[in-house]
Automatic annotation (TrEMBL), chains A, B:
Residues 517-773 form the ATP-grasp domain. It holds the Pfam family Glu_cys_ligase. It comes from Paenibacillus lutimineralis. The gene is gshB. PROSITE patterns: ATP_GRASP (PS50975). This is Glutathione biosynthesis bifunctional protein GshAB.
Amino acid sequence: MIALDHHFIDEIIRGNLQEEVFKGQFGLEKENARVDQDGKLALTPHPSVFGDKLDHPYIKTDFSESQIEMITPALNSTDEAYHFLETLHDIVTLELQDEYLWTSSNPPVLPSEEKIPIAKMNDPKEDHYRVQLAEKYGRKKQLLSGIHFNFSFRDSLLIRLHQKLGQTVSYQEFKDGMYLKVARNILRYRWLLIYLTGASPVFDKTYIERCVHLSNHLDEESHYFPYMNSLRNSTCGYRNEKPYYVSFNSVKDYVRDIRQFIANKQLLSAKELYSSLRLKTAKGEDMLAELIEHGVEYLELRMIDLNPLSKIGIRHDTLQFIHLFIVFSLFLQDEPLDLEEQKQAHDNVDLLLSEGIHAKIQMDHTTVSMEALALEILDSMMELLNILKPGDTKDQQVIEQEKKRILNPQTSYAAIVKSEIEKSSFSAYHLNQAKLYKKLSMEVGYQFAGYEDFELSTQLLLKAAIKRGIRFDILDREENFIRLQTDTQVEYVKQATKTSLDSYSTVLIMENKIVTKEVLRANGIRVPNGEAYGNIEEAMSAFENYLGKQIVIKPKSTNFGLGITIFTGEFSIEDYRKAFEMAFEYDRTVLLEEFMTGKEYRFLVMGDEVVGILHRVPANVIGDGLHTIVQLIHEKNKDPLRGKGYKTPLERIQLGDAEALFLKGQGKSAEDIPASGEIVYLRENSNISTGGDSIDYTDEIPDSYKQLAVRSARAAGATICGVDMMIDDYQNEATPHNYSVIEINFNPAIHIHCYPYQGKNRKADDKILDLLFEAKR
Amino acid sequence: MIALDHHFIDEIIRGNLQEEVFKGQFGLEKENARVDQDGKLALTPHPSVFGDKLDHPYIKTDFSESQIEMITPALNSTDEAYHFLETLHDIVTLELQDEYLWTSSNPPVLPSEEKIPIAKMNDPKEDHYRVQLAEKYGRKKQLLSGIHFNFSFRDSLLIRLHQKLGQTVSYQEFKDGMYLKVARNILRYRWLLIYLTGASPVFDKTYIERCVHLSNHLDEESHYFPYMNSLRNSTCGYRNEKPYYVSFNSVKDYVRDIRQFIANKQLLSAKELYSSLRLKTAKGEDMLAELIEHGVEYLELRMIDLNPLSKIGIRHDTLQFIHLFIVFSLFLQDEPLDLEEQKQAHDNVDLLLSEGIHAKIQMDHTTVSMEALALEILDSMMELLNILKPGDTKDQQVIEQEKKRILNPQTSYAAIVKSEIEKSSFSAYHLNQAKLYKKLSMEVGYQFAGYEDFELSTQLLLKAAIKRGIRFDILDREENFIRLQTDTQVEYVKQATKTSLDSYSTVLIMENKIVTKEVLRANGIRVPNGEAYGNIEEAMSAFENYLGKQIVIKPKSTNFGLGITIFTGEFSIEDYRKAFEMAFEYDRTVLLEEFMTGKEYRFLVMGDEVVGILHRVPANVIGDGLHTIVQLIHEKNKDPLRGKGYKTPLERIQLGDAEALFLKGQGKSAEDIPASGEIVYLRENSNISTGGDSIDYTDEIPDSYKQLAVRSARAAGATICGVDMMIDDYQNEATPHNYSVIEINFNPAIHIHCYPYQGKNRKADDKILDLLFEAKR
């Protein structure tokens, strides 16, 4: 009964378009109700950190003030869309203080109808529309939440197909034809998508009285209808008062029909048509007019439930399946979807939701079980994959997975969710999931899913931008080069802190240690005394002057500790020569400086402010009198902030040769059990890269030092920089002699101040955006 | 009779201070009268490009508006001082349109007294002082010009000596003692310095009537006194009405005596005391008070004539000799210089000027010829050198030279000048020298003497800064990193065009070709189409798309033409692969771009303005039907703008293998004689480094292209940049299709726009300073 269009398949193969047809743009939208700690609908306003609800491109409110909507941009793969939605989800989650994102499409425990807050949009039209909806459908129904999946084929595919197949019609007409064909097939078989994605089988007794009245219950609160895997798609769900069928034969007819419903006052506007699928254009001010002018630009699939089994409400393989189903719909034989067929398709959804996958339906004048038909569809999808992507097992596995959910309805998401709810209650289960997911989001708060190849500082900045509704592009991924954009401003940023806020000469000053020192000194900042040498001979002639002193010998312009020698004790003329020889390998000019005592602190200066102060401590564990050093390391490494290869704010402590040797030097072994409270160091150096800890001292260090850091930055003309200061004892106020600034860095990492080992998140990411976008206004 | 202080010499040697004693700080001041094309005193105002006459640290006016004064800062060697003065001289010369710097200490042809313009200082005190001088001395005498030599020993030397020798007095007293000793010896033997530096033996008949009346004459205009080698130091010269002797026994006495003369109304102020030597302090608001407070900080020797035999008015070996004489004066036995000895010293000068070097003087109760005493002094200087710097032949040669001038008075500067004047006239000779020197200054207008190791762009910027009185420091010589400073502003500049005017992100945009293109494209600028590849395989898979097209393959981020391949004709898959392999050696990302037709022009954008447009042409000669290619190259290479190794704006055309091969490819040989007007190219590439020509098109290219260049700069947010544009035919206005921007450069060279092969000096150096210092206010 399911017939592939082999003529079309042949054209695709002849055009060598097999890969192209699987490409496209993917966008996701999802809503989550906010709930309080008890799982009740949160009655608080939309978090103000997200700025303007109406203008924010990524984070808005839906019908209710308590319903957050997250929207990804159009991205190039399901993978990217998935990760972006995950990041939106994480960002929103972390900004909710004592609240959670409700994990079900079905509303949480609700107050009485009039207490449900309608979103305040500060826009009379938007506000009026929501009031009308509330009157027409009741506020409770509007709180049903779900996921929309937006998809478009590549223009290049459609252009090529038009050249091959559609020469008799215009490109726009041809393109519309392609999308309409897909739309019809999706509408026809949407019951299958609803079966496979449905995940809202149970609802709370505070939901619409009529529905609760008609339903069965698992316990006092948790209600359900037998076989109904998606309340949201059911008659008790997010539907118009009655089904409004619109033509999918042409864009013109589609638009005409919707306009007719509006003219008849059956619909308030096009967006009140709660269909499972919409034809869309990129600019949607007046969607219907745009459709006529530009044709279909993408399809919006709207029947997908939030999946409580996934942190972000949808699994990645579900996205893959929906994409494969859309592509499959293009390759299906085209059949009419007139009023009768639309009714049939609509009834099939209701049949599924009332009788389940074993229900019998009429198809091509024969009776067939939904299960059998579903399997036939999946087999046909598999057949298509075998033709277009022979040997691609990844997509085939996705289809195999879904097949199992049909063969064994107990493994469908709805069935699993229902069985989980049976163990506690609708409310308890979903709240528990929400709390679990919040924990997961917190653990990866420092990263931007899908952008893990970026430096952490850039990942944080991108997330901060998203949070306040600043759009972004990646200009050069390898270089962490991004563009941030609002309606009125464009900013280019590289590696998070290289921005338009600093001038070129400022950076050049900081890049050059000699110049830096001169500039700082000229501005009354204490810097280490020292000299610069252009060759070994010059340096050697100064040897006697430094005999017996504590000195540092270092190349003028390296930043990674290469070629640096420190003499704190006695040194011979040979040692001295060797140190210079090594340094000269890295630069033509080598500096000799007095070695500064005290501890080193990194001051992150932004604008006129010290945003964070950090001190690094070598890798260490603290004994408890019970566990060995090995065990203590293992325990400390469990911290989700610790990882390997700079993908996390901290690195795991290793126990390699270097550490073993360092322990040995202290007369210790890794199997020793340190006394309770004893600090055991595993490294001499305090680098984060070798497992060091970063300790936030922002609140401890007196203001006098902060002023020096700000003055240092100002001397170089810097807006954003890292000032490395040696401080003898921060418990004393700064004097002209008890500190020195050893370096200012023009590309300070910000993540270390946001996710230190000990201390607060200093929100350096937000501060950059404040300076770039607020201060510049 | 001349006795070295051997005790002092021993102390110096014991302290290992032999080198230190020859170090110090050197400053020069000189005046030149401005003259017109006929050698008459110029009556025009001081050139306005030099800004404020009073505040300018380097270029001022002296007594007369027509008398330019040039002042070097204190520098570390006679060499540096010489070069700095040369640069000041060049700068001033080049700004005088139809005027010249008069080469004699004696005034040029003068108008009547009252027509000589007194400098307008816009300062009532200064203006009043000049009026008083004019009344007291007459304006003509005030027009005598000369050179002042300022010198200080190193503080470190004096501190060491104080520790060794002077513990019983304070450091200031000790230091004053050292300088006073030197001062006394210089005053005593100043007749020798005047003999060796005197170069104003003849004067014009328009000079002071009384002097003309008393003198002999060479011709109708040119007057002289027998044996007088320096009019300026004579009774007809720059002297007070009568000699005012002040004590040099202590600073206190020195100050007391001057104050007494002022109190007695004999002097208007301390600076009216026209002594041969002054004690000075660095800050001279109230010099006498400062002397009491801080002691002597340097000595000012004031008896030096302008030497018409040297472009800048003084030879370098003269500076060396004066320095050696100062050092020598420190090592001479100290003898009293009371009133009587001062009179004697004064009379000796008059004796020298009236009787010449063979005059007999009284010395230690015996009669001796000045010649014999001079030789004894020089021998004694030589002896000292042999002790302190054995084997240093350079300084010894200087003394030997001067010795010859004593033994053979005809070789003294004055004698040579007089004999030259005899060939024409006072006025004709000096004017001729002035015109010759102007030509020499113009030939090296692109360079900053003593700073030739800097990039030409930086040399030009430094000179432009000096011109308008902006002080500078060198922060990192190797890196061309300078600090520019006025009383109210500090600017840091690297390589002339890396300034605070551009933001860091702007530079990062330009540094990255992919980002540049994206930014330009997003702002409606046409850029070459193309793609970026991350590895060979990706690139190879695109091969078919580019078959038969004209393409460029280049690394993403190199700026020196390295790793670039251009295919304008057919190319094989192997050629294509090789090109990518080569490019990948330079960058991880390689760009493939369409090859742009048309000619390439460099637009130098500064602010909202295109300052210059340059087109480069390969090395070539133009035939005259007479000379061979070799001869034509030789001729073309005579252009002083051409040199070797980037020290000049253009490079000499070579005739090496590459050029010979290129000629052969055209069926030509280097010995061929090209027809008149025939252009023979010697290279395919148009690089300046291989002898290419730079042609200024600033006035030819239509405004429509300039607007595109400015828009390109603005797209990247750049204030200073080089926009490289391909233009199909500049005779047509720009359209969206007949140009493309192939690069924007954040560190454009400016010298190429100031000293092109053909075209005007576009003064890009001045424009940078306008933007840095004017626009920022």
